[in-house]
Amino acid sequence: IVDEAWTALRGEAVRPPALVVEVPRHTPPWSGRLLTFCPGCPHRSSYVALEKALEASGNPLEECVVTGDVGCTILGMNPPHNLCRTEVAMGASIALAQGFVYAGVKRPVVAVLGDSTFFHAAIPALLNAAAHNVNLTVLVLDNSYAAMTGYQPSPSNPRTLADAVPNPLSIEELARAARVRRVRKALPYFTRRLSRVLRQAIETPGVAVVIAEAPCVARLPRSNVIPFTVRPERCVGVESCSASCLEQIGCPAMDLDEASGKAWIDTDRCAGCGLCAPTCPTKAIRRRLGGRWWRT
Predict the structure, then answer these.
(1) Please, which residues have CB within 8 angstroms of residue 150's CB and are 6 or more apart in sequence?
(2) What is the pLDDT of residues 89-98, one digit of tens each?
């Protein structure tokens, strides 16, 4: 609108509006390239656990409010998760979550943000929420890096500048110092446990902070990675599958073999997180170790 007004003021011809392509909410991952997390990213596991927690608490996902924040965490707004509703400014997720609660939202309200964003600008909002005991859950995805802006170590990372003494900060200790009554930490790759922790936080009155802590996979060596593969003799094919791994996970390391119509995993990109294995009803996703097939 501003561009059109300025063009008209200068007496120039108004350019036609740019073509806007709307992506359907449930676009299958193999139908086009999606803006999503890296293969094996712990944030993907955290969002899967959050989905399960909201559903287990008896709340339709479309009626719950999940506020996002700046950084890799906001990718949870895209398929297949479709959870985050807002992205305003660094640290705004907690403040906006409070606003939704004050506005009368009765369904669960969850603020999701990364560790760098937490240290940068979210602490004042957390202090305010704790002081007023607002009914909201804060999910901090702590991977120790500001991955989206160049992998700078966050204050929770033990890495420091040259000749500096390591003194990493603890999000858990800061949250407790803010008088948050319920603070829990979990490894995001154990989605069942993280889901239980999140459900307890959602159903507990007042502010709850859940920290999903795991290092950024882009900064880890691949020398010890044992990738997962799809056993074609067990895979029934995407069109016939009742719980498609491609739709549920949306991992860039997974794709569709157009010739067979079955799922396929690029072992060079797979980080071995195992998030895809439990989604397969025929147990076709496994990794081979010592001559045997293993689920985890």
Answers:
(1) none
(2) 998 999 999 9
